[in-house]
């Protein structure tokens, strides 16, 4: 077996969560383990930490928790994990800790612990109250914004490293700027991650999916798997996803390069240097397995389903499962299944066809396997390419990419002058193809 670097997401409470978000199809994964308490026991915890350290003898090791809601395990579980990792690591081996949480259960004790152990804490938040509370609901069906905000404030008071994870769905996609500015200005967030909600469903599931996946909906939840060729109504469309990212990019480009870090932009800039920092836009996948509470390992957090169970780490070492033939085939399939439209695409180097779970659309010439978000990816990557080229040039010359803000200001001044010199019914100088009065000359 070859030795691989991989990034494992542990789900110590499986899919169980104290919230009941209407777009969260992960909630149904409880059906994989009927009768389970959904709590990772010490045997699995010890095996996970030890095997992860052994699998990365010469580099950094990341202990990463996700859910469900991992804080339901209680603080002692995490204290034990850190203690195991610190006592088990080799000299010079560095262990990094990261957790994704809905933040509703965080208090001073949690925040102090995260700070003292240099955790990076990802907080799930969908924007200001009215947008967040649209889908992120408590078990009682009310909005969770106030609880999340309280958790966020605990983290800030203790100086914890944070990252906001905002899902973009049909109900907040048109509000890119209020969302971005809320995170930046009201919360003081400096690291942001935007994730498109794409709920893929079969024809049979469509009516049930439309009700939302939360437990307050009527019919029983089916086990969600990555199947079907329809997107449930909460899903963001390709064009809306593109508009959202472009709006955030344009704001960021003019004000925040070097002071706010948006994962999608960092990943795209790294791709210009041949580095693939996010599996979604890497040529292959397979290096981001998910560990269930009982030690079962799955190909990916998005493929926690029977056909993608690799084995159990109490029976087979983690590194062997990750390097084994099933997982390698899973990883290669991403590239092997790329439709011709992607192979010929001018933004392939950035996009790589996106995540296989979202590839249920059809290309313009009828080939299956195109990403549901293709139109958005195409618009976004074409829009940012010249700016990333500028930033890459700055980096190549030993300067900071923040110089792009001054370049954007010069660009805006030139465009404003050209617009002023064009009649209102003339073509907009920005190249959009629209008339000036419907584009940059709009009053
Ligand atoms: S299936 Fe998607 S989320 Fe999973 S590893 Fe591949 S690209 Fe990443
Ligand atoms: S933008 Fe569309 S066609 Fe181009 S690589 Fe991405 S998914 Fe494929």
What does this molecule look like?
The structure is a single chain. With 443 residues, the chain is of the alpha/beta class. It is 37% helix and 12% strand. Strands 9-6-5-4-3-2-1-10-11-12 form a 10-stranded mixed sheet. Strands 7-8 form a two-stranded antiparallel ribbon. β2, α2 (75-88) and β3 form a beta-alpha-beta unit. α1 packs parallel to α2 (75-88). The chain starts with 8 loop residues before the first strand and ends in a 23-residue tail after the last helix. The structure holds iron/sulfur cluster (2 copies). Residues 341-342, 345, 347-348, 351, 353-354, 371, 374, 377-378 line the site of one iron/sulfur cluster.
Global geometry: globular
Distance between the termini: 64 Å
| Element pattern in H and E | EHEHEHEHHEHEEHEHEHEEEHHHHEEHH
What's the total helix number?
Answer: 15
Tell me the fraction of residues in β-strands, as a range: 5-15%
Q: Kindly report the average pLDDT value.
A: 94
**Major β-sheet, in short?**
10 strands, mixed
Radius of gyration: 23 Å
Query: What share of the residues lie within helices?
Result: 25-40%
Can you count the beta strands?
A: 14
Low-confidence stretches: none
Give the ligands present: iron/sulfur cluster
Helix-strand category: alpha/beta
Strand order, largest beta sheet: 9-6-5-4-3-2-1-10-11-12
Characteristics:
443 residues, alpha/beta, ten-stranded mixed β-sheet, 15 helices, binds iron/sulfur cluster
Please specify the SSE layout and strand pairing.
Blueprint: E1 9-10, H1 42-55, E2 61-65, H2 75-88, E3 95-101, H3 108-116, E4 120-124, H4 129-132, H5 145-157, E5 161-168, H6 176-186, E6 191-196, E7 200-201, H7 206-210, E8 230-231, H8 238-255, E9 261-262, H9 263-272, E10 290-291, E11 296-298, E12 309-312, H10 318-323, H11 325-336, H12 340-343, H13 348-351, E13 361-362, E14 368-370, H14 374-396, H15 403-420
Parallel strand pairs: 1-2, 1-10, 2-3, 3-4, 4-5, 5-6, 6-9
Antiparallel strand pairs: 7-8, 10-11, 11-12, 13-14
Helix pairs in contact: 1-2, 3-5, 8-14
The structure holds iron/sulfur cluster (2 copies).
């Amino acid at each position: 077996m070859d030795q691989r670097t991989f990034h494992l997401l542990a789900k110590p409470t499986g899919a169980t969560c104290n919230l009941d978000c209407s777009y969260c199809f992960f909630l149904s994964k409880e059906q994989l383990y009927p009768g389970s308490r959904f709590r990772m026991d010490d045997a699995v915890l010890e095996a996970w930490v030890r095997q992860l350290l052994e699998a990365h003898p010469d580099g950094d090791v990341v202990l990463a928790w996700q859910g469900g809601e991992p804080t339901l395990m209680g603080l002692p579980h995490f204290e034990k994990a850190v203690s195991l990792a610190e006592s088990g690591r080799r000299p010079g081996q560095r262990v990094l800790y990261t957790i994704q949480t809905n933040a509703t259960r965080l208090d001073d004790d949690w925040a102090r612990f995260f700070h003292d152990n240099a955790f990076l804490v990802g907080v799930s938040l969908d924007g200001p109250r009215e947008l967040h509370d649209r889908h992120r609901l408590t078990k009682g069906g009310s909005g969770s914004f106030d609880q999340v905000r309280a958790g966020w404030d605990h983290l800030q008071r203790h100086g914890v490293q944070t990252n906001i994870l905002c899902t973009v769905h049909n109900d907040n996609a048109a509000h890119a700027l209020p969302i971005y500015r809320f995170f930046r200005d009201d919360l003081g967030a400096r690291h942001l991650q935007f994730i498109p909600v794409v709920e893929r469903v079969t024809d049979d599931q469509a009516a049930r999916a439309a009700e939302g996946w939360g437990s307050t909906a009527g019919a029983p939840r089916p086990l969600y798997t990555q199947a079907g060729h329809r997107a449930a109504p909460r899903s963001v469309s390709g064009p809306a996803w593109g508009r959202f990212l472009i709006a955030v990019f344009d704001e960021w480009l003019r004000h925040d390069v070097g002071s706010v870090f948006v994962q999608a932009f960092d990943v795209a800039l790294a791709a210009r240097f041949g580095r693939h920092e996010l599996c979604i836009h890497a040529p292959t996948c397979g290096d981001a397995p998910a560990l269930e509470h009982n030690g079962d390992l799955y190909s990916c957090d998005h493929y926690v389903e029977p056909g993608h169970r690799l084995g159990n780490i109490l029976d087979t070492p983690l590194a062997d499962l990750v390097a084994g033939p099933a997982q390698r085939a899973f990883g290669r399939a991403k590239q092997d299944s790329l439709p011709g439209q992607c192979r010929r695409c001018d933004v392939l180097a950035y996009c790589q066809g996106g995540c296989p779970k979202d590839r249920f659309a059809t290309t313009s010439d009828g080939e299956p396997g195109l990403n549901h978000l293709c139109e958005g990816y195409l618009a976004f990557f074409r829009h940012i390419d010249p700016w990333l080229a500028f930033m890459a040039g700055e980096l190549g010359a030993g300067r900071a990419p923040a110089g792009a803000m001054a370049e954007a200001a010069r660009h805006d001044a030139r465009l404003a002058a050209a617009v002023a010199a064009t009649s209102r019914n003339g073509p907009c100088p920005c190249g959009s193809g629209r008339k000036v009065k419907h584009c940059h000359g709009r009053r």
